Amino acid sequence: MEDGNMLLQPGRSVGFMTLGCSLHEVLTTVKAEVKAYPRFQLYHDDLHPISTPIQIVLPDNGLRLQFDGPDQRLRLIEVLDFVKAKLAYKDIEVFKPGDGGTLGGPSGPRFRHIYDKLLGPTYGGEYVPPKSDDPNARGTYNLSYPGIAFNFPVQHSAYSSKKDFISLLSSSATGPATSMAVFSGESWQKARGTLFTAIPPNPRSLALVGGKGREGGPDEIDLVKVHGEGRIELTRRTSPPFWIILSETTPQDLIMELGAPDSIYRKNDHRLSIHKDRRTSDASDLSPGGLTPDDLDSDHGSAIRSDNDDAADDEDWEDSSSAALEAQEREVAAAEHFYNYYHHGFDILISQPTQISPPSPTAERKESDLYPTPTAAQPLNHLTATKIIFHGNVPGSYQFNRHRRSRWTLEHVPSTTYRDPSTPRCNSGIFREVKGCI
């Protein structure tokens, strides 16, 4: 086996590209490995970007990858050029240039190489006749194994349903394979009907491929269920659900359950403070230690005060209170930051606890819910998760592929439409249906 060959695992992967991986994971890896994957082409339906399949074509590698639209997970790996793909299965090359190709025609492995050396015996496949009536036209014979299938061009005049497929594919009427597909299923005939809807057997994250679990990173989030009143349930692939309670869940809880964030974005960058107006800050720094000796003279303290003096003092007190409040607001803003979880598909705002949103009008409410207790004052160093931003990773959008697609449902909305994560949805459509419940 030559160096640089990609490892082929039927029903599972080609190289690092594993069935079930997220579009975000695959595309991020392809962009990072420029030498291995010099170019890529992304195709999607502009009118239905989240309900139709998405394709990534690697022209220099002879590959085409197909992802489902709603979940954006890899469903099909196609080899369109065996010369560029350079594949190996159990230390045996799938195709060596010059072994099976014809001059001026496509090059690929012959049936006997696949049947005798590579994969072994299998059942007969499916023949698709040509659309043309030309006597020299060629049909396509699909030979399928568990998790992998090959397409062979066959002269239509030589095909007969009574003829043994081994004899047919071994004859001169059949050319070398023109393409190959890696999929999840017993055979191509059985798998193609549910290719984009069946539950993938592998996780979205490459770090979790192979059942590494906690060793490879935190468990992935399968679905987010928004229950209202600040309660968010994160259902995971293998671990029990993790609940985020807004204004209660701490950053330590998030790191323990979700892992360290991919990045942290601070809302108030102190490096920009030089550009801010310092007058209010200077006013808040007044203290007895900053007064002059004349300000502390006893004659000033024993002077008879007028109504104007009292009014001036009130204004000074209000100015000082306002300055102190502004200083506190700046301190709170300086502490606020986002935990960016690109591989989970959401961002979490870490800030001081806030008032929890009221329950849905359609939900059962207790009498105590009608008179919510105000949030108690918390020290500035007491930070919690107060907001979550979910990302759809819509192809063609400005922030495409920054996060993986996050799937969520609204459990507290009286509509089954938003309790089905497979239903494509947009923000405007959601608002039209739920605005009557707000």
CA gyration radius, whole angstroms: 32 Å
What is the oligomer described by this structure? single chain
Overall SS class = alpha+beta
Helix fraction by DSSP (H/I, runs of at least 4): 10-25%
- Helices, by number, come to 10
Main sheet overview: 8 strands, antiparallel
Q: Could you tell me the mean pLDDT?
A: 81
Instruction: Give the low-pLDDT segments.
Output: 278-304, 367-376, 434-438
Task: Briefly summarize what is shown.
This protein folds into 3 domains: 6-194; 218-267 and 336-438, no CATH class; 269-287 and 303-335. 20% of the residues lie in helices and 22% in strands.
Question: How would you portray this structure in words?
Answer:
By secondary structure, the protein is an alpha+beta fold. It has 3 domains: 6-194; 218-267 and 336-438, no CATH class; 269-287 and 303-335. Helices cover 20% and strands 22% of the residues. It has 10 helices and 21 strands. It has helices spanning 23-32, 82-85, 111-118, 165-170, 188-191, 251-258, 279-284, 298-301, 307-335, 427-434, and strands at 6-9, 13-14, 17-18, 41-43, 54-58, 63-67, 74-79, 87-89, 92-93, 126-128, 138-145, 148-155, 179-182, 221-228, 231-236, 242-245, 263-266, 337-341, 346-351, 384-390, 408-410. A hairpin with a 4-residue loop joins β18 and β19. The chain is elongated, with a radius of gyration of 32 Å. Residues 278-304, 367-376 and 434-438 have low confidence and may be disordered.
